[in-house]
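3.2 Worked example (two chains)
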Amino acid sequence: MKGRRIGITALVPPEVVYACGCRALDLNNLVPESMVRPEDKLCAWSAVWRELLLRREVEVDALVVVAGGDCYTSLVDAQRVELAGIPAHHFIYPFSGDIRLMREQVEALAEFLGELEHEVMDEVAELKAMALRVHEMRSRGELGSRDGFLIEVSASDLMGSPARYREALENLGEVDVSYEHRIALLGVPPIYSDFHEVLAELGMHVVFDEMPYEFIRHTGRSMAEVARSYARYTFALHLRRRLEFLRKQLRRHRAEAAVHFHQYACHHSLEEPLLRGLCRELRIPYLSIEADLPGRTPEQVRLRLEAFAERLGEES
């Protein structure tokens, strides 16, 4: 599969994809700007990229679907794509976090994609180290949250090219961000394309995006290191592990409030009471936003965010 374009449907180690001489395309990153409105869907994320592939509006040579541990609705949508003739591989995160089982998964992925070139893993690890430094800039208020978010969320596929991702990282310049409140954005990335801008307009600077941060903190320079790191991917583990991780990160990033963004018909929505309870424990205000279709932030959601910002101003 040398040089072939591989569609991925959740966090699939780009270290392995690129080390096998392929190019990654995170199909989820296409969804917020998409105008596709699927007739049959549960979660709009998987239904939109499914339709993009079935209509051949997006071309991939093969598909790697995360079939266990993160997103479950994508499993059926990916099978529909596979039945339409696109080769697919199923990648599964072990719920237990077992490193041996994770090693089996990354090796099976490599076998599906092609022969490994380990020096490419070194390059990807270096890029993710650069992305972590960008994350710290955003946390210190030296970079807008939208720019930082784009860097972090794009680490899933390195913008289709390590060289392109490196250029994006190197072209970022330090700025002085003015804001009133430090916000943690929990859950899945917003399906609303302008969500970070709306928060910024209301004086809320996102210092921690939960899932995009996962994209940049996991890496490795060998298959063993990749397996060890990705076995700690908290979205795929017992909720106890995820809550412990978030408790540390909310404190480390000095988050003053949390917005939980979750998706209609997603099993992660069932985690909402536990995340609310965590924020209550940490005594930080919490807002839950459930979304459905992609697009710009709806007026009703904007009004709720405005009220939340006013509440933060009253409590500060």
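3.2.1 Second chain
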Amino acid sequence: MNRVIFSLLAKRLLIALLSLLAVSVIVFSITAVLPGDAAQEQLGQEATPEALAALRAQMGLDVPAPERYLKWLWGAVRGDLGQSVTTQMPVADLVGSRLPNSLLLAAVTALFSVPIALLFGISSAVWRGSWLDRIASSLSVAVVSVPEFLVATLAVLVFAVQLRWLPALSYVSDIESVGQMLRAFAMPVLSLCCVIVAQMMRMTRAAVIDQLEAPYIEMVRLKGASPLRMVLAHALPNAVGPIANAVALSLSYLLGGVIVIETIFNYPGIAKLMVDGVTQRDMPLVQTCAMIFCTGYLLLVTLADVCGIVANPRLRHR
């Protein structure tokens, strides 16, 4: 690794850490200005001011916001995420019981969506203007225009209500065989893959076409290289960076789409936990879940930038 690549990687990691710090301020500020709090949620609208004040003091909600933020940030750095104000359980335990389910859903979705999107994206770019390219491009535009909650709703109506092939809700705790796993994950994964595959395919197609139109590809063509060698040996290695960005950005969209999908299918993941926390005004739980999603997004984008920097041949040979 030369000095230029090392400097770029160090700068990118520093930017990611500063971005994460800024995100923590934004997340805490937004949750702090939400109407209502856990004390009001527990006691109801008929509670007296004295009872509300006493419960808020017990929950630590009477402390000024800057002091609460610094205490929360220092605890998060040390691995202490605090306690849920509604259940009085450690937030780390609540998140730890749900996070593996969300990671499993994301992993299964990525396992199916990434190969399919790359295959169709690269094929559409290589055979640009063919019937395959026209059909794939038309379908991707149509799918991208449909939000994931509509795809999930239609999947429930068709496969659960009309055909009765799949369950309307996903219960991962009852999985005892491969068949049950496929039934539990079929509709959530299908709903997430539709939009992710379409987005990733379009970005991959654009990245490969950009390389195929570069001057060095014309030189390779004039030297008599076969189309397959031209794509595999020359265009794709230089498109690793843009393709990695396409994959990372599409998978980062998965972090937002999973909130809707877990809610619709009652999937016991961290997104469903965050929605429940917002309903109960459990701010420590909401803040932790939001930071997990933001950290995942920044991690994916940073990895994409690192891949782009390391795979850039102009930087490697400097």
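3.3 Remarks
The chain has a mean pLDDT of 79.
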